[in-house]
Amino acid sequence: MTPVELSRTVLHAVRCAVDEGQLSVVVPERVVVSEPGAGGCGEYATNVALQLARAAGKPPHTVAEILRPRLIAADGIEDVVVTGPGFLNFRLDRRADPLQDLVREIRGRGRRYGHGDALAGQVLTLRVPYEVRAEVVADAVVRIVATQGGRATVEHRGGRATVQHHGGRAAVEHGELVDLRPVPAPEDPAPLGPDAARWALLHPAPHDRPRITADHLVQREGNPLFRVRYAHARVRSLGRGAARLGFAAEPGRLDATEADTAVTPACRAPTLQAAALHTPLSDYPRILTAAATHRAPDRLARHLVTVADAVLPFLTCVLPLGEEKPSAAHRARLALAEAAGTVLAGGLSLLGIDAPEHL
Q1: What is the dihedral of CA 41, 43, 49, 50, to 10 degrees?
Q2: What is the mean pLDDT of residues 12-19?
Q3: Dist. CA 329–CA 273, nearest whole Å
Q4: Element (DSSP H or E) covering residue 141
Q5: Is the model's pTM score more than 0.90?
């Protein structure tokens, strides 16, 4: 379990305690998890009980004891100890393989991986000017907000809310009013084509002026959109190659076992590449929540580049090389690669950009 995953677990415990009436507090957006301080124990600790105590009207130690049984019951946590005035200290279950668990979670949820309920019940009205970048940003925000249980409609200044469709139902609602005013595009992006045009408008931060140039069409490493789409296409190509070799993805150990005698030394332990990929994949739900909460699709776009840059070096060890025979390690590596492909495809779809199978 990574610190990011542990932070989400703590937030879930707080949310459950609130829902069950044991705590009366506003669930924080994030929880800081760090190494234990003096007097602490285990691998990680958090001061969330101290953070919530005043709002809850209870001593920090009492808040910690309310959260403790929920945390002990979570997968990947072996024990939770309350120290000092109310610090929660975690000892992790070392028998668990967090990367395997992450791959299984992504495979199980598919493109819904990272979806949550951070904005459940919230209705937003996005007010935008008649300008192409604002329109594209609002369209992406509607999709991203929906991943967190919220709903968003769009209205133009001086007009009424436009109709947005949710699950086949048209909705015209006015909720919290949000002004979206990104720096306008300097020229019409339409000549770039729909995908490159959307990327050119969504990838920069709202306060940055987008570049409407042919660089977004160039198929080379210097083009972030190309790297993201190329990484996805490479993953799909590896899946087709594996099928021709007679094996499929299956989560498991990424390094070779003693039984995998055909695996070459160069790919015997791709642990560094896997570790580099683990963090951006496990961080994707947090990024998606932040993009929804702050109405910032640029955060999602930049994170997809991070995922692509992490997965591309790993892909060279997925399929057997030379005289190698497909092994359990190859099946596990393919499962990890496909998990990354799922995240890339899901993120691109939320931005309204196609994720090609071939490139």
Answers
A1: 70
A2: 94
A3: 14
A4: helix 132-147
A5: no
